[in-house]
Amino acid sequence: MIVDTHCHLDDPRFDEDLAEVIGRAKEKGVGAFLIPGADPETLPKAQAIAHAYPEVFYAAGVHPYDLEKYDEALLMEHLKDPKCIAVGECGLDYYRLPEDEAEAHETVAMQKRIFGLQIELAKRVKKPLIVHIRDAGTDAMELLLEHDAGRVGGVLHCYNADEQLLKLAEYGFYYGIGGVITFKNAKKLPHVLPKIPRERIVAETDAPYLTPHPFRGKRNEPAYTVYVVEKIADILSMPYDEAAALTTQNAKRLFKPFSTF
Fold first, then answer.
1. Dist CA 104 CA 97 (whole Å)
2. Kind plus residue range of the DSSP H or E element containing 67
């Protein structure tokens, strides 16, 4: 079995054929799924999907692009749900900061504050983090260590091959490897992947985004996790079945409810 540890099944692009999408994934051996919470407005939909499918779980959090929607009471209500198994996706994203220096400084400060609040929330509910980091590796690592995030651990979603972040493996963090690893122009991630402790690698798709080769340009879906695992196996010089077992065991260790599948 393979676990897709990050797939946005609540995205409108799955509204018409969600059952078929899940069915195709299961036919390929993908047996469990995690919907990351990014926008509080979509959490009821993610929750409904998780309760409709035994193999689907969800997380509750606020993406750095949606900070104005942060509502801790709302997140806490979802985190009481046994099917809500993580906090996130949350983190820092400096890719689209305002051009005005003062506005950029204010945005960074707000991102850090809301990220810190979600780390503390994860510690309170004793659930792991799903961490989004883009162009903010140094600040993100400092915040995670400052807030003692190792008490709950988590996954660096869509790990972007920032080598300084490898240090977080010592603090209970895993590394989400997605479709980017299959891209023909991907150079950093294939180079860094062997440096990640094998017991810290998990597979994800980020569906419907970042579709792996050979389906780039089409909607991504959890069935394509197999192409990610194939590439992991190729880079690490191991059989496919071994890579599938490795990433699944790691996902079950991080997200305990997956252990029932």
1. 5
2. none
